Amino acid sequence: MKINLAPDKVELGRRAAADGAALIRRAIAERGQANVIVATGASQFDTLAALAQEPDLDWAKVVFFHLDEYAGMAITHPASFRRYLKERLVDKLPKAPKAFNYIDAENDLVKECQRLKDLIGQYPIDVAFIGIGENAHIAFNDPPADFETTEPYLLVTLDDACRQQQFGEGWFPTFEAVPTKAISMSVRHILLSKVIVCSVPDERKAVAVRNSLEGPLTPTVPASILMTHPSVTIYLDPPAASLLKS
């Protein structure tokens, strides 16, 4: 695991995007296509904005997947991750991607998990852009996270700390309005990515960052599993890194 400490969150996003874009270009040069995972949430604003502006990248050769979506969430809802990614990434690209495989959690959730499983199995992931939640979740794998399942996508229950984060970031008018269920990519499937680019700004993530990077490997700190990955870089700003020993 590498740590890249940026002076502020904008530079954090620029560095994460530049490094991830270089990996995408390499995959296209080697195989003619890149397969990419992207995350959502406030922590990804600057990374995705910078990624969309990366030069000399043939987006028509990129296949995208994303990490999670709320159960029953219409794409028209302000908190929809499909809407977020369409507006903040796909619509900003100079050229349409080869494919963007959205999670549709409005209908049968079990069937949607199976559909995604059948689909993503055809696309080994070159680079995953992810974040870490205030409760140290990755995707919507809240503590205690399932470190064992090999199913690519799961139906999960969101804990109150996760739901409070979503409310606190302004996506919902009340805490009670935050859904309790979601479809999430599993921990093990995230770890199958060749390279992981993890953007984590803001002081509210400092405890999760410290516990993930310095604490023991444990399902109660889901992001601690990143320590086992052979190629992951954590991009931090000073507030997020403020509790690290070094």
Quick gist of this model?
By secondary structure, the chain is an alpha/beta fold.
Taking the alpha carbons of the first and last residues, their distance comes to: 14 Å
Strand order of the largest sheet: 1-10-9-6-2-3-5
CATH class: Alpha Beta
Beta-strand content estimate: 15-25%
- Number of contiguous helices: 7
CATH topology (fold) name: Rossmann fold
Mean pLDDT figure: 97
Based on secondary structure, the structural category is alpha/beta
Helix content: 25-40%
Count of domains: 1
User: Which H/E pattern describes the elements?
Assistant: EHEHEEHEHEEHEHEHE
Question: What is the overall shape?
Answer: globular
Named at the architecture level, the CATH assignment is 3-Layer(aba) Sandwich
Taking the sheet with the most strands, its summary is: 7 strands, parallel
Number of strands: 10
Topology of helices and strands:
Layout: E1 2-5, H1 9-31, E2 34-38, H2 45-52, E3 62-66, E4 68-70, H3 81-88, E5 99-101, H4 109-120, E6 127-130, E7 153-157, H5 160-168, E8 181-185, H6 187-191, E9 195-200, H7 206-214, E10 232-236
Parallel strand pairs: 1-10, 2-3, 2-6, 3-5, 6-9, 9-10
Antiparallel strand pairs: 4-8, 7-8
Helix pairs in contact: 1-2
Question: Overview of this structure, please?
Answer:
This protein is α/β, with parallel strands linked by helices. The chain has one domain (2-236): Rossmann fold (3-Layer(aba) Sandwich), CATH 3.40.50.1360. 30% of the residues lie in helices and 18% in strands. It has helices spanning 9-31, 45-52, 81-88, 109-120, 160-168, 187-191, 206-214, and strands spanning 2-5, 34-38, 62-66, 68-70, 99-101, 127-130, 153-157, 181-185, 195-200, 232-236. It has a seven-stranded parallel sheet, with helices on one face. It has a three-stranded antiparallel sheet with strand order 4-8-7. The mean pLDDT is 97.
